[in-house]
């Protein structure tokens, strides 16, 4: 990974205050709203916090597609391809920037959750869950970059929204996965957002098949990284 390019990209992201507020603010606002409706005890607040943390991570990382698409259609990506920047460095940098935004969004949700729970918060479990959410978001950071590398600039946002909502439902963010049709639940277990939520809930006592979760997330990460690298390295179409 090119450290200079990565630092410049992160600095550029942090200067976009409107995007930061919107991306981090929406999941946090939903968490506050849902908690007011259903979070009548610490356990419910914790579960809602993790669910909205997953949604925050998904929304922030997938939103990378919009920025990548704008760069591609403005000609900036073509200029990068003429530079010594390697395809793998490009993939790592763009996904890292997406993860930084994701981590900011998830941390804000957890900070609000900590304030709501006060003395009843399990700080070690929250820290572990936060770390698992960040690591589990890597496939979606790559997916966001890949979405920006295909199609038109105008279609980047709608495509990202479709992927975001589909991933949220398959991850049990809006509806508990056991309440979905059995066929959809079976499909969800092959999808990364399902295991992100499962891993993030595990520090609070939920059971999870860790080996299958790791293998599923690793497979998606490697596959998407290869696609991003391939797409950047080929000629612009």
TrEMBL record:
<keyword id="KW-0472">Membrane</keyword>
<dbReference type="InterPro" id="IPR000412">
    <property type="entry name" value="ABC_2_transport"/>
</dbReference>
<dbReference type="InterPro" id="IPR013525">
    <property type="entry name" value="ABC2_TM"/>
</dbReference>
<feature type="transmembrane region" description="Helical">
    <location>
        <begin position="18"/>
        <end position="37"/>
    </location>
</feature>
<protein>
    <recommendedName>
        <fullName>ABC-2 type transporter transmembrane domain-containing protein</fullName>
    </recommendedName>
</protein>
<keyword id="KW-0812">Transmembrane</keyword>
<feature type="transmembrane region" description="Helical">
    <location>
        <begin position="160"/>
        <end position="177"/>
    </location>
</feature>
<dbReference type="Pfam" id="PF01061">
    <property type="entry name" value="ABC2_membrane"/>
</dbReference>
<feature type="transmembrane region" description="Helical">
    <location>
        <begin position="129"/>
        <end position="148"/>
    </location>
</feature>
<feature type="domain" description="ABC-2 type transporter transmembrane">
    <location>
        <begin position="9"/>
        <end position="196"/>
    </location>
</feature>
<dbReference type="GO" id="GO:0140359">
    <property type="term" value="F:ABC-type transporter activity"/>
</dbReference>
<dbReference type="GO" id="GO:0043190">
    <property type="term" value="C:ATP-binding cassette (ABC) transporter complex"/>
</dbReference>
<dbReference type="GO" id="GO:0046677">
    <property type="term" value="P:response to antibiotic"/>
</dbReference>
<dbReference type="InterPro" id="IPR051328">
    <property type="entry name" value="T7SS_ABC-Transporter"/>
</dbReference>
<feature type="transmembrane region" description="Helical">
    <location>
        <begin position="210"/>
        <end position="228"/>
    </location>
</feature>
<keyword id="KW-0046">Antibiotic resistance</keyword>
<feature type="transmembrane region" description="Helical">
    <location>
        <begin position="91"/>
        <end position="117"/>
    </location>
</feature>
<feature type="transmembrane region" description="Helical">
    <location>
        <begin position="49"/>
        <end position="70"/>
    </location>
</feature>
<keyword id="KW-1133">Transmembrane helix</keyword>
């Amino acid at each position: 990974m090119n450290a200079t390019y990565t630092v410049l990209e992160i600095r550029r992201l942090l200067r976009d205050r409107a995007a930061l507020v919107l991306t981090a603010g929406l999941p946090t606002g939903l968490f506050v709203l849902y908690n007011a409706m259903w979070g009548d005890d610490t356990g419910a607040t914790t579960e809602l916090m993790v669910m909205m943390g997953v949604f925050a991570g998904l929304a922030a990382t997938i939103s990378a597609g919009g920025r990548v698409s704008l760069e591609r259609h403005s000609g900036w990506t073509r200029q990068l391809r003429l530079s010594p920047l390697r395809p793998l460095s490009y993939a790592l940098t763009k996904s890292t920037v997406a993860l930084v935004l994701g981590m900011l969004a998830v941390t804000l949700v957890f900070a609000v959750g900590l304030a709501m729970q006060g003395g009843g918060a399990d700080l070690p479990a929250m820290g572990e869950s936060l770390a698992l959410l960040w690591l589990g978001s890597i496939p979606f950071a790559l997916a966001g970059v890949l979405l920006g590398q295909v199609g038109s600039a105008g279609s980047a946002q709608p495509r990202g929204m479709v992927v975001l909502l589909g991933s949220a439902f398959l991850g049990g963010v809006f509806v508990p996965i056991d309440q979905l049709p059995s066929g959809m639940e079976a499909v969800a277990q092959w999808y990364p957002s399902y295991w992100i939520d499962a891993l993030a809930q595990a520090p609070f006592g939920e059971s999870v098949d860790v080996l299958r979760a790791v293998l599923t997330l690793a497979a998606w990460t490697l596959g998407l990284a290869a696609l991003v690298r391939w797409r950047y390295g080929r000629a612009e179409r």
